[in-house]
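Troubleshooting log. The previous structure file for this entry was overwritten by mistake, so regenerating from the original sequence record. Sequence copied from the archived sheet and checked twice against the printout by T.R.
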Amino acid sequence: MILRRRLLTAAAVLALPVSGAQAFTLNVLHINDLHSRIESINAFDSTCSAEDEGEGKCFGGAARLYTAVKGLRDELESAGENVIVLDAGDSFQGSLFFTTYSGLAEAEMMNRIGFDAMVFGNHEFDLGPAPLADFVKAAEFPVISGSVDVSGDNKLAGLATDHVVLEVGGEKVAILGATTPDTVEISSPGPSVAFRDPVEYLTAKVVELKAEGIEKVIVASHLGVTDDIRVAEAVPGIDLIVGGHSHTLFSNSAEDAPYAYPLMVAGPEGREVPIVQAGAYSKYLGHVALTFDDAGVVTAASGDTILLDASVTPDPEILGRIEAMAAPIEELKARKVGEVAGDIDGSRENCRAGECSMGNLVAEAMLDRVRDQGVTIALQNGGGLRASIGAGEVTKGDVLAVLPFQNTLATFNINGAAIVAALENGVSQLEEGGGRFPQVAGLRFTFDPSLPPMEGRIQEVTVRKGDDWVPIDPAAVYSVVTNNFMRNGGDGYVTLRDEAVNAYDFGPNLEDVLSDFIAAHPGYEPFTDGRIALAE
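Regenerated output below.
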């Protein structure tokens, strides 16, 4: 499939038929995948230090985001423009603010910033429905369930909004929501929450809205860019998709951005549908301007993501509130764990596609912790690694930025054939950047991404035997350590759930295991050694 990655230009607008009625313009400001970055972040997506902030090395954070949104919104509205502010999900999980306040800190900051709507992300379900219900109650804006059916949950039913119709500049603009069905596997929604097929749900909902005379339809999507493209190609009547989940930066100015802003995709009605996304962690604010003709058809879409760096001054009042909320956790965050000799790469793009130095560190720490129990293999999902760590001093806050999920070590016995099946699942979502990609210790494997998922991508698996590496024995039983999320079937690892024996899921917290390992290895040298490689 060839995608046309370009902006509609002024010339393209003139080439489109437009009636004599005055065009309606709408500016959409948006973020996605905040992941509890209430405080500003550094180049490694961890909490920025006061020293780095003073040197202008920080990005994002709620106070800086407030300044950017307010400034741009005020400027546009003063010029007579129409503005809405959207969030495409995953405000939960990723910092000690979430660990401490379970979503209420995020709700307060988003209320202050002034969002008009937000869609559920998968991480909104990490603690189950109850904390999400508290978040929805605290939010002063609609939280859209969209393709998520919460009618069977006694906490969320009646709280979440299926969709919202905003009155903007005398026009009705519908905001629909779509959340990845993978949430069942990658989070903890529980049995009372169901996930509908996004294409089927959106297709029916757009028809319903059109029948009510609502022509302008925006989808706030937490599906990821691959599925956003699929939705744009399949669902008639969508005017804009504001995306999230894949943490993808769409940009016309940032180097190496994989997509222009907006990405234009040919829809089923023969007109192009703009898709936008703004990276993650509040580092960027997206701004797309849409022009509609009097029939409600988009005739122009333009804009870009805006880097929220030191040129954007954080709002002092918001900073004061953040400092007050941080007081109970500041001592823990600042506690020194140890020192490392080099930068440890925990980046999403690397740890979900191949061997990365953070994956090696975490897997080795896990294995080291339980080696005296006879455990010889460690498995860690790349999606469980949420930040990198810079060279030098490492604090508990740094570790918690990498491992924010409060997972525990889980040990079990399982045969070699099941381990290979688990690895096959691990490499099954390479194209989507799936978080299930396995980081390992005590084991090596090669894979062939050219083969179809779940059809033999895993080519060779060897395990350590003394000082040697030998082929894994499908019939032999091995002792394995992973995290409790994976062991219970998370990220599609149903093999670990269904075939493990003598499982114990209640070991120490993974962040404590990593902290102890770093402390015990002063000057730790990050490394990759070819344990995960492409098949020749």
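Residues 1-21 have pLDDT under 50 and may be disordered. Archived copy saved in two places this time.
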